[in-house]
Amino acid sequence: MTPSSSFHRAAGGKSVAGGRGTEDGERVAEGKGIAEGRSVAGRERAVGAGSVAGSALRAEPIDMAGMLAGAHHPGAGAVVLFSGEVRNSNRGRAVAFLEYEVYAPLAERMVEEILAAAKEKWALHIALAQHRTGRVEVGDTAVVVITASVHRGEAYAANRYIIDRIKHEAPIWKCEHYADGSHEWGNNCNCHAVTGDPAKHIYESDH
Amino acid sequence: MKIHVYAGLKDYFQPEFEIVGVARNTDELKGLLLAINDKAETILSSCRFAVEEGFIDNQFKLNENDTIVIIPPSSGG
Known about the structure:
The structure holds two protein chains of two kinds. Chain A is globular and about 50 Å long. Chain A is an alpha+beta fold. Chain A has two domains: 1-31, no CATH class; 35-206, Aldehyde Oxidoreductase, domain 3. In chain A, a hairpin with a 4-residue loop joins strand 12 and strand 13. Chain A has four helices and 13 strands. Chain B has one domain (2-71): Ubiquitin-like (UB roll). Chain B is built from two helices and five strands, in the order ββααβββ. In chain B, a hairpin with a 2-residue loop joins strand 3 (48-51) and strand 4 (54-56). The longest helix of chain B has 11 residues, at 26-36. Chain B is globular and about 35 Å long. The interface between A and B is large, with 46 and 28 residues.
């Protein structure tokens, strides 16, 4: 179910340092994300001790080999890389390409928070994720998640947790463009139909 | 109040628009949006709302100068 999140604003509306805070004045959602739609390739920042993560959103092709090359750690006996790729069919229909739309300021911070949560939960040495924005062709990579830990069990579990939460929670949307010229926003998270709350999710990795 | 919508919501609303009237919370905002397009009822029931890059719920007091982002269910990956 839904892990605790720092992306929820509390009731009240009290202004704190230019932003809105909780009722007791504690600031939520520190900092600002990148400008919407802007490529963030090349920008790097530390996510936690022992790792450096590139920004989560990329308008250009993901450099999977480069990500993997930077994902080695002397304390890690296991590195797991997941690559989500664009396939040529969806529910029996030929897919021409995908287009990803994103609410970048929030998506960027959510992915960062998900990575930090995974690092803490599984004591990972490295947790990285990048997701494409814009048009992505069949066979191209849409999302990459890399985890590195002492043993493989933690790296596998954490990787699954990260991709599950990105798919369910981050404000990223996929539009399928079909070979017949039609398009469809699709494969949305449908957890709310079960949980009754758009903010509560059921993850494959929980089963 | 300025409204930004994404993805499938753009089948029902302009990507960005200003709403006439003031909604004090998200339930009231949904009412104003349904007055614009009542066919959006199902998708709106599955959406989340955000102000200043943070999610809000119905307890959050909206201001007339707020820019509200309406976020349909995710489909990343």
